[in-house]
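Teaching assistant here, posting this on the class forum so everyone can see the example we discussed in section. The complex has two components, and the goal was to see what a joint structure prediction looks like when all of them are supplied at once.
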Amino acid sequence: MAENTKIIENATCTFCGCVCDDMILTVDLDEKKIIKSKNACVLGRAWFAEHTIDEDAPAAMIDGKEVSVEEAIEEAAQTLTKAKFPITYGLSDTTCEAQRQAVAITDRIKGNIDTTTSVCHGPSGLAFQGVGESTSTLGEVKNRADLVIYWGGNPAESHPRHFGRYAVTPKGMFTPRGKKDRTVVLVDVRKTKSSPVADILIRPKPGKDFEVLWALRALVKGKKLSDDIEERTGVPLEVLQDLSDRMKNCRFGVLFFGMGLTMTRGRHFNSGALLALATDLNEFTHFVAKPVRGHGNVTGADNVVSWQTGYPFGVNFSRGYPRFNPGEFTTVDTLANGHADAAMIIASDPASNFPKKAIQHLKSIPVVVLDTKMTETSKDAHVAFRTSTYGINTSGTVYRMDDVPITLRPAFESPFPDDESILKGINKRVNELMLAKHYASGASGEVKVAAPI
Amino acid sequence: MSAAMRIVNGKVYDPANNIDGKIKEICIQDGRIVDSVPEDATIIDAQGMVVMPGGVDIHCHIAGPKVNAARKLQPEDHRHDVHPGTPFTRSGTGGTVPSTFATGYRYATLGYTTAMEAAVTPIGARHTLEEFHDTPVIDKGFYVLLGENIFLQNLLREKRMEEFNEAVAWWINATKAYTVKLVNPGGDEPWKGKKNSNVSDIDEKTDEGLTPRQIIEAFIKSVDKQGFPHPPHIHCNNLGHSGNYITTLETMKTAGDMRAHIAHIQFHSYGGELGKNPVSKAAEIVEYVDNHPNITCDVGQVMFGKSTIMTADAPLAYVLKGHTKGKWVNADTECESGCGIVPFNYQEHIYMHTLQWAIGLEIFLMAKDPWRVILSTDHPNGGSFMNYPKLIKLLMDKAFRHEEMKRVNQSALENCSLRDLDREFTLNEIAIITRAGPARALGLKNKGHLGVGADADITIYDEMDDKEMMFNAPRYVIKSGNTIIGNHEFITDFIGKLLHISPEYDKKIEEVVQPFFESYYSIEFSNYAVDDHYLHDHEVIATGKA
């Protein structure tokens, strides 16, 4: 047992979108390691336990050679300001404070900003813009929901505490008996580790989620379905009718949905159908829906990019103001189409998970990377920063999947700077370079230099 | 801090100091208005111009969770109204729910330097403060939604009033708010817990055993006792419903002689039978307000065109969704609030919309005491704040008003007295309803006037006959002594400060609140209160009885 330890109570786990803030961490200060993470799930325990710091790694590198952080900031700023179509990407595994700086930089260099939302719940974002959403914070689900439906997700493995902390077993104000006061329905094309939690398991044919959702909308509105619905969707009419009745007659219903819905055939049509179903049900009872988000602060990224630009992701500043066009300004597209001529990647590893064509282009342009560890993306980067880990070494704000903001309590210090301070440095330098460009173009007038916001 | 400055030759409108269009020098040093400045101070020659304190918006929705949801919801509202950056200012997008940067800069381009976000859930306070830090130029604060707070209602039902007061103060401190906001008191639980129903009468007893009136009274008394600079900011029950003026009068009567602020009172001044078209009861409402100096209100003027309904009054938003049949957001916040968002459009040919427009104007034009009837559009509910210059023209220019009246639904005009109102506001009265009045109602002693010691938040307009044009384009806007807009152009960036209060409370109340949190909230008690690093630049406004 280590002797020099410290206990951090009410720390937050940023591994997934659950953002559980009841961690009790025991830190070995000599080894700089979290040796115990009480209340964490299996994913959280691994997240904390595997966090070690390689103190010998360089904090900054240019083309693989160690440099000072200041030199790297200068080179990053030069690279980004010289580019014609610089892109910023990632952002879902860092703090809102860092995200704000990233949008500021991209605005100043008239670049393109996008987050990992474009490859996960982006379709849900588009569906939201189309039909809106009836939703709630997770505490409201805990307190009130008597019908809980999961659609196209496997929280037992992806968000292990979603059941226990928020939606299935917790005892709330109007659900004093926990799971006994709830009916749990799981809709998924396959059996998963989540299946045992369900009172009712519905398995549509793969790729038929939209049809099932649309059929439910029809039943809820009292319309008749054609007899071949089971043949088409794999779900018998009686099962659909029973679910429709349960949804209309519950006191407070919730539909959680995952990437089994958003990233399969139909995409934003699927999300839109589900959101519309939840909306329709409010004619009969109180009903809400919520995407089960993945990354620790992807919801924060959506919020920050939205409040600064008006749009949640896929935003381009090349005309001097934000424009939104998913399919054009989303990162897979800016890369695969060969538009981007420089990139700043923050807390993400597109070189290991993007389509081949996008990766090929990424490897052909100068890339600035901020990451806590060596990744596929950072090993070939023109400028690479090694930064401290949010929630473990760095404080800041993250937004839970239900838009609830939480302040992080760091466990121990890292020798590496955090994302926000690196980005602040780049922002300041980019601002200077862009103002110099402005004056060089012959501008005059009574002008003071603005402090970068 | 800012250098010394002297504004000369300007026609000064400073109603709080009884200055009505007098040519007068204004001296500025270190962000404040001073008696005199050294000879070498920068001089602004305001010959032919009007000098006023910076505008103060007492009721708008500009930051926080519901505002951001409304932004995300409407890309179509942004793309036709872009806000390009300059080398010194950030870019953004506009529409009825502008991005944070566009919000701050656009307020500045109207000569407004302070704005209060009118409804924030406690759990959303941190989000709101983050957005505020990205909202440039203006000073800002927010009202925190406490009326539907289940813990506070529990104390109220158990008549634990001492603890109730302590808990109110604790929540204000935990969120860094400016005052308490009540929205459709008693309406949250029927909405969330009883299949989307609502309360309909101020004396209706809910299953929880409380009436809206008991909730209203408790908060008015608590805030009065603690001496907040601004009283509870109340969104009455029955917003938008025919016959609701009775509820509004009863709400005001509940205050007795204690202070209360009635938000967007236009939406609460309707006669007629429930379910049928309303008629105007502006006269009855204005009479009560005029005769009760403890009451302040903002009008919530409706302006024709695009708006966005965003409100903690979730049942109301659902009713409006039934009219628009378009997209709708509902967002429940655990133990604290409901919320609804509906993109909306006020149209001249529609009876209801014209009547709402006319009632707002009636309230302005009938009020004898402009100090307590403050200009607002309940941005963006009645229309964007960018409509303020046009609204000012409607009030100052009778001929223009009558021209506009030709284009609206005529049968609505039959059911109100707008046609008979000849009043034209003076510049001094405009300075009251946009500056001095709201600052006084908010208890902001350093704002809304140009006396020595006031914040150097100053707007200088070219004097023009067309008042819409005049109020749309100040030549200079000075914020905290910094010239932000000079000769119509942004010449620097500036981040304003947060205005909040910090009433005293007994720390023991945390022991009472904490067990409730552990049972019914989904975040930890110790992670709930907002810590000071979210404040950035801020000013604590004093509480306590003078």
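For the discussion questions: The CA atoms of residues 280 and 416 of chain B lie 5 Å apart. Residues 54-445 of chain B form a domain with the TIM Barrel fold (CATH 3.20.20.140). Think about how each of these relates to the inputs above.
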